[in-house]
Specification:
By secondary structure, the chain is α/β, with parallel strands linked by helices. It is built from nine helices and nine strands. Helices cover 31% and strands 20% of the residues. Helix 2 (23-32) packs across helix 8 (182-198) and helix 3 packs parallel to helix 7 (149-157).
Length: 235
């Protein structure tokens, strides 16, 4: 086990072990205990009461954070013709068809999101082994397979995030940067939480969110009370 820094230990000492903080308290504490000197990312993790091995309990979705993520996403678009031109105009970082497919097939994944027009999916689908494990595969359920590739690029650049429960029933996503004020982080958290709750599978029984934790990039985890779902009213 790696040795923890003094800054990390000092941050951890400020957190009450086992306590589940209200969202605004947890977010404020995460900012105060950030041990990094750089503008760290603020991240949320949920443990869900679902069995992701069953198709009817898979939780996957997207949400546009009202204050963005604090990071400008690099977007790759698979498109041709007018759609490719529209993607470039919308600010896509990489646009192409067969050339980009070949580049990705060779192992290149230096981007944060991928979008494809429907007519390209017959070829893009072959990239599943490269893009799938990195959660980068375009998918109509997340709005990344669409004839309106320009809107998809604008949404992603504007703070749209994708989330998907992993095989251990954990859901993980970012809600901003330490430099955001606490209220903006709370509003981003509330928007993401609302969407996660909306996507609760009917097959999920018992407690849906059993555990919630907030952390910064290299900071300690801080428990959030999963029973507080009306976040803004609580704040």
């Amino acid at each position: 086990m790696a040795k923890r820094s003094k800054a990390y230990e000092a941050a951890e000492a400020k957190i009450e072990v086992g306590k589940q903080y209200a969202p605004i308290e947890a977010i404020t504490l995460a900012k105060e205990t950030n041990p990094s000197k750089f503008d760290a990312t603020v991240e949320i993790a949920f443990r869900l009461g679902v069995d992701p091995r069953k198709a009817d309990q898979m939780v996957r979705g997207t949400v546009i954070l009202p204050h963005g993520t604090g990071k400008t996403a690099r977007v790759l678009v698979f498109a041709t013709g007018e759609r490719a031109e529209a993607a470039i105009a919308a600010g896509a970082d990489f646009v192409g068809s067969d050339d980009m497919i070949a580049k990705v097939a060779a192992g290149w994944t230096d981007f944060d999101a991928a979008v494809a027009s429907p007519d390209m999916m017959g070829k893009v689908g072959r990239l599943g082994k490269v893009l799938g494990p990195r959660n980068l595969m375009p998918n109509p359920k997340t709005g990344t397979v669409t004839p309106d590739v320009a809107k998809a690029v604008t949404d992603i650049k504007g703070g749209k995030i994708d989330f998907r429960v992993d095989k251990h029933s954990n859901l993980h996503f970012i809600i901003g940067k330490v430099s955001f004020d606490s209220q903006k982080l709370v509003e981003n958290y509330a928007a993401a939480l609302e969407e996660v709750l909306r996507l609760k599978p009917s097959a999920s029984k018992g407690r849906y969110i059993s555990k919630a934790t907030i952390t910064t990039t290299f900071g300690p985890g801080i428990g959030i009370d999963p029973n507080v779902t009306k976040v803004l009213a609580d704040a």
